[in-house]
Design a protein that fits this description.
The protein is of the alpha+beta class. The protein contains ten helices and nine strands.
């Protein structure tokens, strides 16, 4: 999505802090204009049923699935650091979510760093959450916009209108988990109970917020971690990517 925004094929999209980190390195033409404060409880390290692994430290020498250059890469790296381990102390296996799910079910992984609906689906088969990303991930999911769209008065107004709808939808969601799950499940092919489980277990209500110093600092911390991990070649300043000029009105 970020690549599509940078190429002018989309006016706006959202994702984690990770893609804009690489945009800062490559010089991609995007601007971060708003932030979703979202869930981190569905970003986890799972272990299969019957596993003797009880802590991140127990992952030494283990086969651990993850998705390269995503939130899973980031929080797994940070968890290992906190446990006194390095990336080379595990056997990291880069897998797409679908491939990771197949490998995890088949016993090909000792642990799996994953997110979203893969988590309740795996737990239905007995998987156990070793640790969530709470305390590591910020829960910030930026909206990135195309500079051309921001410079066009009509498209800029449309972006503001769109984000206003998103803000109102998040407030509606607070008290309509059942209705949302019933509508969403058939659209994405995930059991309604799994959608509801994620909603009910969220670390915080979803909110759309304006960019602030905290959001920029959090994004910088991600970039610094990826430099330490060797995923980006040098220090990058993410602040120039952020644009606080949209007049988003009342987001309370």
């Amino acid at each position: 999505m970020l690549e599509a925004v940078a190429a002018g094929a989309l006016d706006i999209a959202s994702g984690s802090e990770i893609p804009p980190t690489f945009a800062a390195v490559s010089g991609a033409q995007v601007k971060l204009v708003a932030v979703i404060r979202g869930d981190v409880n569905e970003q986890v390290v799972l272990v299969p049923v019957g596993s003797t692994v009880r802590s991140i430290a127990d992952l030494r020498g283990k086969r651990v699935g993850y998705v390269r250059a995503t939130t899973t890469h980031y929080y797994l790296f940070r968890m290992l650091e906190q446990a006194g381990l390095s990336w080379s102390d595990i056997q990291p296996i880069n897998l797409t979510p679908s491939d990771g799910q197949a490998a995890f079910r088949a016993g090909g992984l000792d642990a799996w760093a994953i997110y979203g609906y893969s988590v309740p689906l795996a737990r239905q088969s007995g998987a156990r959450v070793l640790r969530t990303a709470a305390g590591i991930l910020s829960g910030n999911y930026p909206y990135f916009a195309a500079p051309d769209a921001l410079a066009d008065p009509a498209r800029r107004a449309a972006l503001v209108d769109h984000l206003g709808h998103i803000a109102r939808a998040f407030r509606w969601l607070d008290t309509h988990h059942a209705e949302y799950a019933a509508a969403q499940a058939p659209l994405i092919g995930v059991p309604e109970a799994s959608v509801r489980e994620l909603l009910d277990n969220a670390s915080q209500p979803r909110r759309l917020t304006r960019p602030d110093e905290g959001a920029i600092a959090s994004h910088q911390a991600v970039a610094d971690t990826f430099q330490r991990a060797g995923l980006i070649p040098h220090h990058v300043d993410v602040a120039p990517l952020w644009d606080r000029s949209l007049e988003l009105g009342d987001l309370a």
